[in-house]
Amino acid sequence: MAEQSVDAEARGWTRDEMMTVAAARELTSGTTCFVGIGLPSTAANLARATHAPDVVLIYESGCIGAKPDRLPPSIGDAILSRTADAVISVPEIFAYWLQAGRIDVGFLGAAQVDRFGNINTTVVGDYGSPTVRLPGAGGAPEIATSCARVIITLRHSPRSLVETLDFITSVGQGDGRDYRAKLGLPGSGPQAIITDLAVLRCDPETSEFVLVSVHPGVEIADVLAQTGWPLRVADHVGVTTPPTHDELRALRNFVGA
Amino acid sequence: MAEQSVDAEARGWTRDEMMTVAAARELTSGTTCFVGIGLPSTAANLARATHAPDVVLIYESGCIGAKPDRLPPSIGDAILSRTADAVISVPEIFAYWLQAGRIDVGFLGAAQVDRFGNINTTVVGDYGSPTVRLPGAGGAPEIATSCARVIITLRHSPRSLVETLDFITSVGQGDGRDYRAKLGLPGSGPQAIITDLAVLRCDPETSEFVLVSVHPGVEIADVLAQTGWPLRVADHVGVTTPPTHDELRALRNFVGA
Amino acid sequence: MVPEAQLMARFSSLRDAVAEHVHDGDTVALEGFTHLIPFAAGHEIIRQRRQDLTLVRMTPDIIYDQLIGMGCARKLIFSWAGNPGAGSLHRFRDAVEHSVPHPLEIEEHSHAGMATRYQAGASGLPFGMLRGYAGTDLASITPTIRWVTCPFTGENLAAVPALHPDVGVICAQQADRDGNVMMWGITGVQKETVLASTRSIVLVEEVVDEFSPRTNGVVLPSWVVDDIAVVPSGSYPSYALDYSLRASAFYAQWEPISKDLAQFGAWMDEHVLSTADHAAFLESLDPSLLGDLDG
Amino acid sequence: MVPEAQLMARFSSLRDAVAEHVHDGDTVALEGFTHLIPFAAGHEIIRQRRQDLTLVRMTPDIIYDQLIGMGCARKLIFSWAGNPGAGSLHRFRDAVEHSVPHPLEIEEHSHAGMATRYQAGASGLPFGMLRGYAGTDLASITPTIRWVTCPFTGENLAAVPALHPDVGVICAQQADRDGNVMMWGITGVQKETVLASTRSIVLVEEVVDEFSPRTNGVVLPSWVVDDIAVVPSGSYPSYALDYSLRASAFYAQWEPISKDLAQFGAWMDEHVLSTADHAAFLESLDPSLLGDLDG
Question: Residue C99, Cβ neighbours under 10 Å: how many?
Fold first, then answer.
């Protein structure tokens, strides 16, 4: 569902901006957050610049407590190591910090996600002869395993929110219910999927993701049409609070827009 | 066999000095050496000050390439970290450096040693109700496991060179022959036992220690009397070269005598 | 191991920090490898008369000799118990050899084994492994040594369980005003101790506005530390690099004090029980024992 | 992994170091995590037309895209293959999706798994373990993921075999005249790479008389390094903290070049095969791509 730039102009913000702002709002001050590159990094830094100044950003490159004042083009930029409280090795960040259960929130992107928040970033098509070879796992499988909770962000489309993943790179809620507990996974897994159209949350009982909020200007029917499985809809679906002036200013200032 | 100070004065050196000098001579330049406190540290630094300037001294406190100019009173002194090429954590020194097989020579002391160079530094008497509780293992078991070769230094007496150890803290040649290979121990184990009376070396076939050299003024019979097992004697027993003037000067300068 | 709410370490007095975090029956690790040994914290635990502690430390030295002699410890988990370069720990020996002041349970490992246990604890793994212990009697007397088989090569390796002390106590040179902590020089297993422990107390020499880069500089972010106590020379008679030198004279004079039970009791009474805090402890000592506290 | 005889790293040209240490069929790890990526060494491997390599790297990026596109690689062991922030690695994708220029065997892990494998290699252990992979399809398609059971708790943990590249190649900022090497800032798995590898090459920005303390300063003693090559801006278009800034423009312009096979070939010919060394490579580029080499 391509966005018309005229709509964005009329609203004063783009759907990608809405997605980033909604993701940022998931972080509260005093949270430790494992940040991937791209939208997760932008959202986490937006949270730090607005309502959650004490959020602690942790990058898999080994930067703990990084405080970049502009969008770093990669997860290993000089601005991250120069502003971090501590810089450590990559083996240490995964063993002593992520695996040890010290991180509250993991922010993950995805090429494909299913109704239980399982993630594919490996291949589209068959693993042995893929249609599209994606970058692969990176830090995601263990972020999904060990963070206390996970937030997934991706653009909404039937190709990205799919009935069946081509490959499970990172485990979300598995096949639902108490799957994670049975497997002994320490974190609670994905709790929210934030897209450019809507917010989906994990049903505490079934562990299936449910539409709870549509972004301003988006209809529930739009979301259902853009979702590759029969998406469950909450009894009451809210409308996401649009980006505030302060949020937009901070976001555009940070990304240099 | 207590030493008469009058003998030492007549010779110009004590038996402890002879022991230290003989131990130092075991190190060649370009050797990496894992150094315990006390005599091993003195001997290794003596080697560095005399014939082996390029010996690399590694202390379990995490100091690699330490170059102290006076005897450090402990293995964690400021003089070691200030002069080291690299200072690292204790877990790293054992995992990345010792266990990885990067160290050529390990220098170990012992309360008791047996004919196969096995070492006790744990208890005299029964483990559950010991006559003397000794300090315990420290770094020795894995030094004995992983260094390419081990040199043991201790004062000679029937109470220290014993028929049967009260406790095996660190494995030498086990029960002899190819014991280490069968157990999968990577290093070759103890190759020399340097005492204040003599030098014993490991027989390559039986792995039993054999008297190969007595220090000046010591008779073979003295050594046999001071050894708690029927010590094998090499076909030709040499006399250890006495400490040279340069060795004594460097040693006394280093220990501040 | 800090809940989301507490993001900053708290600056406390050492007395308050010990009172809050160290309880009778706790497992307590006071770490420091020759350098940065938290003596002042051990003294405060003695002053507060803690009992039944399981003490953990790679190199129990004089401060553990004192804790054991004063009856604070039920059990000791360790790898080398001595007074380095100076003699024995006679209170430790008396406890093991003669159950004085009461029996002391011991669980002993090698240094490599203890370091691996702390690493496993800091890593959130249930165990760690190493190539060690094979052929030793340690494997038969220490139940926390078991074996695992490499699923690729079939090699047998020693397995040791993670350490998770209730309280980890270390010294560092500096804290900044946000409660981040920095230590440098020989840092031993101190980082792992804090990260493996449920609660942590860090003693620092001073609070600074900003850290400088240092050789082997290790920073612990504020949010993994519970309490910070500013205790100048808190590691005495050990040392803090760039702040003090090791007081070797103190180590040497401990041998006769430790050896004689009456002398030990009198010394502890005069210098620890009768002093209000670490500053008073230092004041109570013969100045010749103090060495160079300005490193 | 150095025999007793060679205690010092040797200062060599990058050409000689690659010629001596990198052979057809070798397993080669060029590591660097965004920062300090040894691009110049990858180019030299391409110039010397090495083939049949097993390439290892957590984050294969443009330099591995080039090595793969030029037909140097038989196999890739990795955890994330992309052009961070800029797009795909089309040469890598073409190899996997269409066997262009020839089939590429892949063995993929997560970052945590790769880091654990390097650590195990550096530690001389046959395998490492982590809490990971459970429930993923990685475990079923990657034969180097197996399982071990904790002998204390019964928990199942993922096991991964140690990495032992024939050659490890990294960049660092400085060497001293004795051949000790220092890097700082983000240091990734570079230390583990050198320690896990049989042979090692380190590219440095410059040789200094003495190292200064640095934030996260990591020193590799001379005797664990084989060859040191002084190659200013050797990590370009990656960066060396305090020497250069990352050339993001280069990363952005790679997307169209990589996408078009003919354009790729022409670019490699002009900028790599036709240049004698890294200085000539930098000279051959449009100055607008160079960014700030004085970071």
Answer: 11
